[in-house]
Design a protein that fits this description.
This protein is an all-alpha fold. It has 5 helices and no strands. It has one domain.
């Protein structure tokens, strides 16, 4: 069995997605006094995306903690991660953040693209082995 076909692989990727989202969202919400100035991003955007990231991360954590991973949800999360990366590109172009803001947005985009790719790899490998993704 390949690493990607292991039930632990996809679950681990989901946990990484959940932790990165909750951490990013919590940081955005906790540092609302400093981040708009440092990143050059509107405070309302940081609040809205911070809340979304925490909520999304909790949903992904819920899926990762289930006995059986629901594969269509993993596919939806992978598509959502690609969408987030595209949104990050638009944000850099439209909002013209500071250099630190560009780095923050780029880090998020790179992270979710890697996670989306890993999620797809895990889904494809699980499909090839025709196994149910369980704990």
């Amino acid at each position: 069995m390949s690493l990607f076909a292991s039930p632990r692989f996809l679950r681990g990727v989901l946990w990484a997605d959940a932790v990165s989202c909750v951490a990013s969202g919590a940081l955005q919400l906790a540092a609302l006094d400093a981040l708009p100035r440092l990143l050059g991003l509107p405070q309302a955007l940081l609040v809205d995306t911070g809340i979304f990231l925490v909520a999304y991360g909790l949903v992904v954590a819920w899926l990762a903690s289930r006995r059986e991973v629901i594969r269509p949800l993993v596919a939806l999360f992978a598509i959502g991660n690609v969408g987030w990366a595209i949104g990050c590109g638009f944000a850099v172009y439209a909002l013209q953040p500071t250099t630190l803001g560009i780095a923050w947005i780029s880090m998020q985009a790179a992270t979710v693209l890697v996670l989306a790719d890993l999620q797809w790899m895990g889904l494809r490998a699980a499909r090839r082995t025709a196994g149910v993704v369980t704990a």
